[in-house]
Specification:
This protein has 1012 residues and is of the alpha/beta class. The protein is 45% helix and 15% strand. An 8-stranded parallel barrel has the order 1-2-3-4-5-6-7-8, surrounded by 5 helices.
């Protein structure tokens, strides 16, 4: 599999030159005319094709480049799943009036399209809530027509869905398939349903697949087959859960394969997201190794996505595997259905590249390249799933000497394949989704996207003015476009040139080798650092890992008053030198530091995981955030510390500048032992403030190692000191120091208030930035997708064992979907792995210490009815299982519980406004989530709630520096936001200098610049 691993992020130009072109060019050149001519014929025939389905025309009239197309997709995505009338009406009122339906009415258009547009236009006027329509007559009309409108729209979407859904159940699907007049077509039934989130869901999908195989096998002269999604068979179908996949998922696969063999039904495993690819191949290898498939069975298949750079290597590997075990396999070559998702993931996680091609013509060319590889294989039976005329024509010519089949999606591509109506040897399998509307929505959205996207061949074909010769172009004609408007690499997404921090792809084998092998390191020491030197002291404490109480992670030397005094003296002496240190050099230190952090992922992760109990994934995110802080603040500083000339009367120069204030104290918490520690420290340093860093005692070892890297990056030894120890012992003395100017604190509200009281005694008014906790809520109404809500809530509440100030503490669920959400949430919690943080499979580890453990436990005692999955008895640390507590009102919540504890509470949709006011009354204002498809709901929440960071239809944790500046209000902190544009200026003094240039002999500039 080495070649597969190595090609995930390969440069697409290199791949084109070294693999694709040498393989396809000879054949392409030799057969160019034939291929071109057939492509043109297919297109012309397709253009003549008269669809029987009026909805197809509607889909193309309202494509995704029009606002109305997006409106219809939003309706289609949400309307059918909403159980209550109020929310349904809200969604309709929200979406329909926003469309410009009138513009789609035109004599030349299909009558059905025109009638639909007229209907949408009138509906829009009826449900419009803008003031001009607020008349008694209008309200009456609205009331009378609402039920009709709801029914009509629901039916419309049901019909739209039927365009893509073959049948509601497998018996109906089989009987419909058997009635299909053209014997050259057969079917692959896809049991609708996406990734399972819970074990009961997976069981249900497994039963469906079994039933599908049995029913299809009963009468299968046509050779119909079943398509299977592995993510539906196991909720944790993820590379880092390989062991569990081998124990739980593999047996399900084996059972289905055996059943398929027994019933003589072909099966094909669908291709899903790129990070699951190697896992799927490992499972398949295991099936071959165990000789599950009998040599006579010819029906085992897998889909390969040509938009992935690795697809060629995957085909070669499969061919090799088949030869090794003398076993045939079917390969369904698709281009791929998750392109936009892959791009987003790679950007968010800062990967070194994209796993998919970023130009459509490269996907098309790679499809041809993969076809050649399939052509060369004697063991693989090729199946080409495409609706693209050029791809079809090329394959038609390439495979003159070899058996193969085409495949198409039900509801798409009929026009394309109509060309082959009279070809006897033509074979086509139709991918036929089967299921009820409950399971169809994600599938439907993917199809609408595919039909509506500008890059889609089908979409271009159906455009009224599409040009046949352009449509028939070979993708080779576009290779000069390879560098035109390139998609920025995931590391270069910020337009201002700031580098995105490098992410680690933990689904990749090379990284799994490294990070999966991080071992419990030998205990290390942490010293105070003054003048760049390690200063030992007599108070030395053993630090144990919260995830394994028998493991001493290191010894920490706590600062005493002598060390603190010495640190303060050195810093104060150096203060003016540092203030006047050239800004570009201060910035360079930060950038060097960012690079060093990036080069030290492994040792930092190993230490941080053991000391703070953070999982590997969380540690990596912590370091990435620290890196982003360095690069962001350094970029901000370059802009901020320029001298600004201000306009004024002639004869004076007015300048405005910022300068560091002097001595700062930064006090950082243990829950982000790297990101917050670094963020607060470098923000002060880049402003020219000499700084004392006082990290939480629980994460002293990590802070010490990080600080050493900062010195290595070139920080002058006297610009900052690291003081370790308990806050109450180290800080009071510093807080009283006459030179103190800034205090930056992140931690609990109680400690922030103690610091504030200390500062009140100071003769000066000291600047205090405090970032404290949150009692964060996530509101989900019944238009939201429950699976998405549950996935985001689990991440928001239980990642980092809930020890994030942004974590979701209260989930507010619209009452109509409360029971369903509660059920799914419990199921998803059951699937979480609680364990040692250095194991890649761990989702959640221990809480930080005994005190935290006791506080959380005492909260839990009040709720004997709580829901908690059982923990393995082998764990020896401060482990608390993910916990769910049902509450009946927000008033029950009075304080933040800093751990893996989620409270869930129902609400009624008409109470949304008072719910928001209730959130405000909690007094915190840090993060808030809304899951809804209704803009008016989102607007009500965002306008009413006084919260610093609001997240819509996503999780509520993991704010990105410079993208989601982070910080709250009320009990949650003072602002300015960390990683935001206002942060640095709060640490500086402003200077305004006005120079009267006429004082020495008049205004020479004025007199010489004015002409008569
Ligand atoms: C029978 C069948 C089974 C299928 N099974 C699967 C499956 O298991 N897994 C799966 O993922 N999909 C599957 N699909 C969906 C399939 O991937 C899409 O239908 C297919 O991508 C459309 O390809 P096309 O040749 O018809 O269209 P075309 O319009 O020629 O190509 C569309 C392709 O180009 C890609 N693309 C768009 N823009 C860019 C860009 N800028 N850079 C690079 N590529 C770009 C799209 O993502 C898409 O893959 C299946 C399809 C069929 C017909």
């Amino acid at each position: 599999m080495e070649a597969i691993f190595n090609s995930k992020y390969i440069d697409q130009k290199i791949f084109l030159d070294q693999h694709i072109l040498p393989t396809i060019q000879p054949f392409h050149t030799q057969h160019a005319d034939l291929i071109q001519s057939l492509t043109t014929k297919i297109i012309l025939k397709a253009k003549e094709y008269k669809t029987k389905n009026p909805f197809e025309k509607l889909i193309h009239e309202y494509d995704l480049s029009s606002k109305e197309g997006v409106v219809l997709m939003c309706l289609a995505e949400a309307l059918l799943r909403i159980p209550d009338v109020t929310t349904m009406n809200q969604l309709i009122e929200d979406k329909i009036p926003t469309g410009q339906w009138k513009e789609h009415i035109n004599k030349q258009k299909d009558i059905f399209v025109n009638l639909s547009s007229i209907a949408f236009m009138f509906s829009g006027k009826i449900v419009d809530r803008s003031e001009e329509h607020e008349t008694i007559f209008h309200n009456l009309m609205k009331k009378m027509s609402e039920p009709m409108l709801r029914t009509a729209l629901k039916q419309g979407i049901n019909i739209l869905a039927k365009q893509f859904v073959f049948a509601e159940n497998i018996s109906a699907a089989n009987s419909q398939a058997s009635k299909h007049a053209d014997a050259r077509f057969n079917f692959s039934f896809d049991m609708l349903g996406e990734a399972a989130l819970t074990l009961p869901d997976a069981r249900r999908y497994f039963d469906n697949y079994q039933q599908a195989i049995l029913t299809t096998g009963q009468n299968n002269q046509r050779g119909n087959s079943i398509s299977i999604k592995l993510s539906a068979l196991y909720p944790r179908y993820e590379r880092n859960q390989l062991d569990r996949c081998l124990t739980h998922l593999l047996p399900s696969m084996v059972t289905l394969i055996e059943l398929a063999m027994k019933n003589n039904v072909d099966i094909c495993f669908d291709a899903e997201e790129a990070d699951r690819l190697t896992l799927s191949l490992m499972l398949i290898e295991e099936i071959f190794k165990r000789k599950i498939i009998t040599p006579t069975y010819r029906g085992f298949g897998i889909a390969v996505q040509a938009y992935q750079k690795r697809s060629g290597a995957v085909i070669q590997w499969l061919d090799q595997l088949c030869r090794q075990y003398d076993q045939p396999i079917n390969v369904r070559l698709v281009k791929g259905a998750y392109w936009d998702t892959e791009i987003k993931i790679a950007q968010e996680l800062g990967f070194e590249g994209y796993p998919v091609f970023t130009k459509k013509f490269l996907t098309d060319l790679n499809y041809l390249y993969c076809s050649h590889l399939l052509h060369e294989s004697s063991k693989i039976f090729p199946q080409f799933a495409t609706h693209n005329a050029f791809s079809i024509s090329y394959i038609h010519h390439l495979f003159q000497d070899k058996e193969f089949e085409f495949q198409k999606l039900h509801g798409m591509g009929d026009e394309i394949y109509s060309y082959f109506a009279s070809h006897d040897h033509f074979r086509c399998r139709v991918y036929a989704p089967v299921g009820g509307y409950n399971d169809l929505l994600p599938y439907l959205v993917r199809r609408l996207l595919e039909n509506g996207a500008n890059t889609s061949f089908i979409h271009q074909l159906k455009k009224e003015n599409s040009n046949v010769s352009e449509l028939a172009h070979s993708p080779l004609q576009k290779i000069d476009h390879i560098n035109q408007t390139p998609l920025p690499s995931p590391r270069a997404i910020f337009p201002d040139g700031r580098l995105n921090s490098l992410g680690v792809d933990l689904s990749e084998e090379s990284n799994i080798q490294i990070f999966g092998a991080l071992t419990k390191s030998a205990p290390s020491n942490a010293f105070n650092i003054v003048e760049g030197q390690d200063i030992p002291s007599s108070t030395v404490i053993d630090l144990c890992s919260p995830s394994n109480l028998t493991q001493v992670v290191g010894k920490v030397h706590y600062a005493d008053q002598a060390i603190t005094t010495s640190a303060l003296e050195k810093l104060v002496m150096y203060s003016s030198t540092w203030q006047n240190y050239p800004v570009d050099q201060r910035c360079r230190i930060l950038n060097n530091f960012a690079d060093l952090l990036e080069q030290n992922y492994e040792p930092l992760v190993a230490l941080c995981a053991q000391e703070a109990g953070k999982t590997i994934k969380d540690c990596l995110a912590d370091i990435r955030e620290a890196i982003d802080f360095c690069r962001y603040y350094s970029q901000q500083a370059e802009r901020l510390f320029q001298i600004n000339s201000l306009p004024g009367p002639t004869g004076e120069i007015n300048e405005y500048t910022l300068k560091g204030k002097g001595l700062s104290l930064v006090i950082s918490p243990w829950n982000f032992p790297i990101a917050i520690f670094v963020g607060q420290l470098v923000a002060n340093l880049v402003c020219g403030n000499v700084t004392i860093a006082k990290p939480a005692e629980q994460s002293s070892l990590t802070a010490y190692q990080v600080f050493r890297l900062l010195l290595k990056a070139g920080l002058p030894a006297n610009a900052a000191s690291l003081l370790l120890g308990r806050g109450e012992e180290v800080c009071p003395f510093i807080l009283a120091h006459p030179s103190l100017e800034n205090v930056v604190f992140t931690g609990s509200l109680e400690t922030a208030k103690i610091i504030q009281r200390n500062l009140a005694q100071h003769p000066k008014v000291i600047n205090l930035i405090a970032e404290t906790g949150g009692l964060n809520c996530l509101i989900a109404d019944s238009s939201a997708l429950t699976e998405q809500v549950v996935r985001d809530v689990v991440q928001s509440s239980f990642n980092s064992a809930g020890q994030r100030c942004s974590a979701c503490r209260i989930l507010l669920i619209e009452e109509n979907v409360y029971a369903k959400t509660l059920d799914m949430l419990k199921g998803a919690m059951d699937c979480l792995v609680v364990g040692h943080p250095l194991e890649l499979k761990t989702d959640m580890s221990a809480v930080i210490d005994q005190e935290a453990f006791d506080t959380i436990q005492s909260h839990l005692q009040q709720y004997p009815q709580r829901y908690q999955p059982l923990l393995p008895s082998s764990l020896q640390g401060y482990y608390i299982p993910p916990t769910l507590i049902e509450i009946s009102s927000l008033e029950q919540m009075t304080r933040e519980v800093f751990g893996p504890v989620l409270h869930i509470c129902p609400y009624q949709s008409h109470n949304l406004k008072s719910l928001c006011e209730g959130i405000n009354q909690l007094g915190f204002g840090l993060t808030l989530g809304i899951h809804s498809r209704i803009d008016s709901v989102i607007n009500t929440v965002t306008k009413t709630c006084k919260v610093g960071n609001i997240y819509i239809n996503r999780n509520i944790v993991g704010a990105v520096v410079g993208v989601q500046p982070f910080g709250g209000q009320g009990f949650s902190g003072t602002g300015p936001k960390a990683g935001g544009p206002e942060y640095l200026s709060r640490l500086c003094h402003e200077y305004s200098v006005s120079n009267n240039t006429t004082a020495m002999g008049g205004n020479a500039t004025l007199l010489t610049s004015i002409t008569d």
